[in-house]
Amino acid sequence: MELKRVVVTGIGALTPLGNTKDEYWDSLAKGVSGAAPITRFDTEKFRTKFACEVKGFEPTDFLDRKEARKMDPNTQYGMVTGEEAIKDSGMDLDSVDKSRIGVIWGSGIGGFSTFQDEMINFAKGDGTPRFNPFFVPKMIADITPGLLSIKYGFMGPNFATVSACASSNNAITDAYAYIQLGKANAILTGGSEAGVIESGIGGFNAMKALSERNDSPETASRPYDKDRDGFVLGEGAGAIMLEELEHAKARGAKIYAEVLGSGMSADAYHITQPHPEGTGIELVMRNALEDAGLTADKIDYLNTHGTSTPLGDAGEIKAAQRVFGGNAEKMNISSTKSMTGHLLGAAGAVEFIACLMALEKGIVPPTINHFTDDPEIDPNLNLTFNEAQEREVNIAMSNTFGFGGHNTSIIIGKYTG
Known about the structure:
This protein is α/β, with parallel strands linked by helices. The protein has 2 domains: about 5-250, Peroxisomal Thiolase, Chain A, domain 1 (3-Layer(aba) Sandwich); about 260-415, Peroxisomal Thiolase, Chain A, domain 1. It has helices at about 20-30, 65-70, 75-90, 110-125, 135-140, 145-150, 165-180, 200-205, 245-250, 280-290, 310-325, 335-340, 345-360; strands at about 5-15, 35, 50, 100-105, 160, 185-195, 235-245, 255-265, 300-305, 330-335, 365, 390, 395-400, 405-415. It has a 10-stranded mixed sheet with strand order 5-4-6-7-1-8-14-13-9-10, with helices on both faces. Strands 2-3 form a two-stranded antiparallel sheet. The chain starts with 5 loop residues before the first strand and ends with a strand. The model has no long low-confidence stretch (mean pLDDT about 95). Keywords: Acyltransferase, Fatty acid biosynthesis, Fatty acid metabolism, Lipid biosynthesis, Lipid metabolism, Transferase.
């Protein structure tokens, strides 16, 4: 069977760095940090008092007030970015076959704040079960693709992927595969997460996963730095319209890039810690290269998972050196989580978009907040520290990994006809 070629024709972003794809990219290229003291709740008793929140977002600017109240912020973020990606794609929804367009969406947790708030309200009561009638649909992770399909009439493949911080990369990978196999002409994909709430910060604090650099939030996310002390929690969403090449060409769509391959693997090791030798990470990158039919020397830019944790950063870099060999010192590597924070299930989508824009603009976004070299990380690597670098990027790889040992890697390249 001859597999279909898959291209990207639309982008939408709502991030701690900007509420559209263009605002997001402008901040990435400038090396802006999205971290600041938390505004959503009183952090006095929390060990971490900062995060990368979405800023200046008012859901009723985009959604009917009554409908917005039926949605968790996680879904609101998805609805807004989905609309941006559809508009950006230039797709005429009155002329396409909507039975051949799907929505596949990733979220690590789903309606986190909805669940928290309903449980708090119940605990404060007299034991009488008084729950919001929209509690369950607001909470479930698959409601976002469901509502997107309802709003736009997309009747193709429709489901959610849940693999912790790899969720939206898994969603993009699944969408890519369904189009390759001819099961859809186009799929709106990506992911969203809204975890900057009391239980999100408190839960990750209990695991000792978050940075506690409260005196300097903007420099707290420092991947590959010797003094990194944990990740910074972020929130937001990224949406991508994937389309079968001939379908896109037939309607004269702008093509941002072509999806060339993807890989998946499991560490099969620990619920939260990466494998000390990075074997699952090495495997997923090799799987992606094999799927794309590429040799390691063809990758110009690697957007790493790079969360700013002591174990994770060093392990991923060592795995990359084994995979890329001599090219590891020639290609650019960076972690955009140094700016956005860690968007959990939405991380893969917003980092996929960073790679798309790097291809289009010829600029590699930086790893900001590098102050002290880590002796465990090879100084000969170009980790794009502190400032963006101009370079022709023809092919990029993006990695995301999740608790439970879930690993995904996606490769995109400039569309060359």
